[in-house]
Amino acid sequence: MIDSGFETKSLRMELLLLVTFQAPAADVERIMEAVVAITPLHMGKYDGNAYQSAQGIERYRTLEGSAAGAEIELRRRPGTVEVSFELPDDQALAARVVEAIFQAHSYQEPVIRIQPLLTSRSKGLDDHTNPNRWWNTTGDWKKADLQVRENA
User: Can you state the angle between helices 91-104 and 28-36, rounded to 10 degrees?
Assistant: First the structure.
């Protein structure tokens, strides 16, 4: 296992923490507001960086002592997503973020995971002529999507 960062011509691989949580899609904005109140989630020249999966189905059964009480049937909750983002390798910061997620979450026992990982950070080299970059292909996806909707 690679346990320290390294560099290539174009980027650095840095040791960071991957934070992942599961929540109803309706809760994500409230939870992420609590997270970015603690840390801006920077990635190069961007902030507020996180990934949210498509909605899926969470499965669980409540046991004695849970807020809902013990149940026999397995529950299936549609509309659950997984959100992930990266933090510096800082245990005190991670503890504050996890507590913020817990306090803003609607679940009694939220699923929160932290894993160490190597992740890329661009060196910011001038690659304006790279034919694979979005600005040299279809352009800004958000503006392109807006134009498609306006023309529909």
Answer: 150
